[in-house]
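Final report, results section. Input specification for complex C-07:
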Amino acid sequence: MARMKFLCDSERCVECNACVTACKNEHEVPWGINRRRVVTLNDGQKGERSISMACMHCEDAPCMAVCPVDCFYKTDDGVVLHSKDLCIGCGYCFYACPFGAPQYPQVGNFGSRGKMDKCTFCAGGPEADNTKEEYAKYGSNRLAEGKLPLCAEMCSTKALLAGDGDVIADIYKERVARRGYGSGAWGWATAYKTGSSA
Amino acid sequence: MLIKKSSGTPTRGRLSGLLAGSTLATMDRRGFLKASGLAAGGLAAFGALKPAMVRQAEAAPSTSPNIVKRRNICTHCSVGCTVTAEVENEVWVGQEPTWESPINLGTHCAKGAAIRELTHGDRRLKYPMKLVAGKWTRISWDQAINEIGDKLLEIRGKSGPESVYWLGSAKFSNEGGYLFRKFAAFWGTNNIDHQARICHSTTVAGVANTWGYGAMTNSYNDIHNSRAIMIMGGNPAEAHPVSMQHVLRGKEQNKAPLIVVDPRFTRTAAHATEYVRIRPGTDIPFMWGLLWHIFENGWEDKEYIRQRVYGMDEIRAEVKKWNPQEVERVVGVPGEQMKRVAELMAKNRPSTLIWCMGVTQHSMGTANVRALSVFQLALGNIGVEGGGANIFRGHCNVQGCTDLGLDVTTLPAYYGLTEGAWRHWSRVWDVDYAWMQSRFESKKMMETKGIPSTRWFDAVLVDKKDLEQNDNVKAMFFWGHGGNTVPRMPEMRTGMEKVELMVVVDPHPTTAAALPDRKDGTYLLPACTQLETRGSRTASNRSLQWGDQIVKPVFESKADHWILYKLAKKLGFEKEMFKNIKIDEGDEPNVEDILREINRGTISIGYSGQSPERLKEHMKHQADFDIVSLRATKGPLKGEFYGLPWPCWGTPEMKHPGTHVLYNTHLPVKDGGGAFRARFGVERNGVSLLADGSYPMDSEIKDGHPEFTYGLLKKMGWDKELTDAERATIERIGGNNPDGVGWAIDLSCGIIRVTMAHGVQAMGNAKARAVAFGLPDPVPVHREPIYTPRRDLVEKYPAMADRRDYRLPHLGKSIQDKDFSKDFPMILTTGRLVEYEGGGEETRSNKWLAELQQSMFVEINPADASRLGIKDGQDVWVHGPENKAKARVKALVTQRVGQGVVFMPFHFSGFWQGVDQRAKYPPGADPIVLGESANGVTSYGYDPVTHMHENKATLCRVEAA
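Structure output:
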């Protein structure tokens, strides 16, 4: 069974934001909600690096631990999803999340009642796969179609990797070996409790 | 706790599919992932896994019966990414990665990943409109064509055909662009231009004058072969993000140094192994400074220079002046770093040199380009894999539209405007030369260069006696062209207000609709995007890619070729113009027929072999092409290069594979090899201009030779190999002098066929010119920008004296003589952002992109900001040195720019000198994000060869607002 993970190779990320618009395109995410965003460190200075960030679908997800209504659940693939029907929009998960993933929209499908929205690893939600109801609340379900998250599939420089954690770790390791140095897979230690040297 | 069900029968993922109620049983996702061994498909293309593995993603069970997949090419930059659309009931409902494309391997940038929005965009111009007493009014297409046509004929009668300016677009397909060029010819003017003027006209002029053709010599993919990579005046991380996957792969796999030379620490520079900060406008001293170290140390490729380069000794003499001290004084780069960079480029060959608008958009742009070209010649890097002058073009079809002559100086395929050129194209068009001439004011005007797009408004505003044409420009067409793309916007705005007729043909209203205070006489015609029609476009690497229509034109928009046909009909020359082009149902000229006509005429640059049938085959078999060599390694196209990059010699039947790397002597001509073009004669002052002992592989002539004519063919005794039909065609073209018929006007392509059979390149085999006699500075010399803060350098490095060209006065020295640096002490430079493109109207109207960049800004160094009392994020005024120009923008305080330099992106418009212009757009068609235009502040300055504007080095003053 694959354990799905994200990995952003900051040596490759050029902050082109394809991941951000691919996400918007795939799920029709409304203005103001950013399931994914690109964060730039040391902007404009030597050592500038960018990282594409979204829900990392943590091993031991803090959001799940703090949710007062227990709306989160984890799929067999290790994807952390939640039920917008149960969510009360309290915002605890936002405080708990080390990656700033939870979003609280003001308008539209995604939160007229202040429901939390976040990256689903393109895996939808609790409703039946690829139903109108699932799409309206969570966006499309690519995993159910045998596809991977579009953000990673479309990443301009193949910086953002998504898929089986072992496979993407191997790809990244090979890149590091080829380069002769590695700046670490940012966020991996936090999300997956493994070595950051992946 | 909820547990997501782990099995089921997933259906299509799109809302519309769900609404339609269609379901289709598919394999379970986990089952699929397991079965395909592709748990990580999305990322496998790079890194360890071979692309072949990625292609298994095709196995994804994803289609509902109503979904069809269609392919087109991204309409943004010149990389040429394939877009795969999922269409249901003629609505574009989803976008999927195209793993098979050897160019983008599935990927996109922010713009490409958001491109589906263009065919939904509710900010599009929806129907034809006209301005009536200052109000936008909806009209029908018939009324629009009729009224515009009547007005054009009135102006033609009153002022002559030269008084209509046809500003076209790099967003046209090849077919649309070619038709637009042909249309201007049939109307009777050379006042026709497009965006190449403002992005790479100086590149085209510079490199074509050096070695033959005005194009990128290698390809994005070929950078995988580079041992060192230098990017100068380019920021591909933002302008061509998908190209960066090839650049970074070259960097990682070959441990290639990545050197970025730019006044600004760009997002590309963030990935460099060596960043060099130069002062804007000092490109030539920088290049000569590098060559100084190369010549001093003997690192140049002496044998290559002896065989293939003319005039390097004169370059040496100029380079000698640029010792490390002088370079540091002028450019600001210390000698130690200069030496390091020179050594990296010289000792890690093949090394490639990439440049963009930081080099080209200067009042000495052509000379800049020439200096960069000479640098690559000195290192023997041209004509080799991994080397090259990898010029990243801008728009999606700017290469194609340049090739097809949307240019004031030439007919399609660089034939120029001479009588010979007009006779050639009259033959292709099957019209009488005398009739063609009758469309023009005179034979003289027919052969006179037009007015460059950078200066169209000067042709409206200058005194008639200063203008070398019958009358001022009275009607202006903006056909797929922003209104904020050239400097001196205050004057341009006046020009816009003064013309009698202004027609905007575009998917969006554009700045041109909203900027001027006009009350009447403006028409907006909704053109569709290339995603809504079919046709070919030429990527930067000269590959032609065919795009299928994804959806029908939205709202009342129409394809460019439809509009041109309607207009030609109204103006009364559609019978001549469409003589050999079938008109399909709905008055639509047949796109394939247009390409066939292009094939017949563009022999000189080898656009002749890429028939619609061949191009469609290439799209179908994308997966068979190698991602480094771009050659098909299997399948029916085995041996051909992807997209038949031009030159693809001769007729489609000759099956030339296209040319991946230009001037590559390591391959036979018939297999994509070549040599420098012999287009400047055979000798000069007793020195041969032909190659010396260098020739394409398998050539029977083992030395340089001039270009082939029928006469030369006879001398070689090869004329007997012509077929009777070929000989008849040549003799018909030649009339009294068949021996004088050159290869490029031989419509039979027989001369090409026969020479190629002997391994010989019909266009000759010459040396590249380090010294380009005929150009204003045959040896490039440094000239300070005309607006410079370095008054201490003006005397030694003066601007060019005032002169005349392109029907207009052209100022240089007289402006530079005045010191503006006291009142305007900061250098202003401009550039791109990843979210937007060009004038930005289309991308600022795309909600997914607009959200990412909502404000116009100016970057300013923290030291300057603190001196001026400016805080990050606050509003500032940027004042320009001419016409009391000013713009109110947000300050972005950052070390990205050096002290004394500020940077503004050029994609914004819709604010004018602090005032919001939103109400002036037609309701509902205003872009989401508006902002001040950088060109509202930029100033005079034009390249002497092409009249490229100076957009990278002028002066300004920044004040807190």
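Residues 648 and 658 of chain B are 4 Å apart (CA to CA). Residues 1-63 of chain B have pLDDT under 50 and may be disordered. This concludes the modelling results for the funded period.
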